[in-house]
Amino acid sequence: MDAAITHWINSFAGHNAFVDQAMIAITQAGVPFIVLVVVLQWWSRENRQHLRHVAICAGLAFLLGLAINQGILLFLHRVRPYDAGVSNLLIAKSADWSFPSDHATASMSVAMAFALQRLPRRALAFFAMAFLICLSRIYVGTHYVTDVLGGAATGIVAAIVVRALYRENSKFDRFAKSIL
Fold this sequence. Notes:
Blueprint: H1 2-10, H2 17-40, H3 48-75, H4 102-116, H5 120-139, H6 145-165, H7 171-179
Helix pairs in contact: 2-4, 2-5, 3-4, 3-6, 4-5, 4-6, 5-6
């Protein structure tokens, strides 16, 4: 079923040059764009100290999620869908294994970090960006659906761990906000 859904989503690739270019742009620039938007939260005029805390939480969740992925990649070696003949690739080949998707982890960790800090409008915007990034990774042929779901789960877990361990107005939080 995973391969069938992946193939179905990827089957739309190559039929509309505008959509193809948009998906390629999202897959290549989506995560850097999310990082930029998080960084820009630092200079927000409203609720500045809380948003700075959330920006740090998002960054920590981002890093923790990607670290977890590296651990997973030591044990799971899933072939990319384009190497298995499931998808047609629109971008350059990746050098690592397919599961889990780092793009999904990175984008979902940030979205979840904002959601856990009760910033619903910002969280919704980040979830929309994360969804587009996840979809683009399947569309361009570099990931299976379950790679993206696994990456999203890793990002969510990372954000929950950071939320549980890194408290607002703690000594470490005040220190982190003062040096950045």
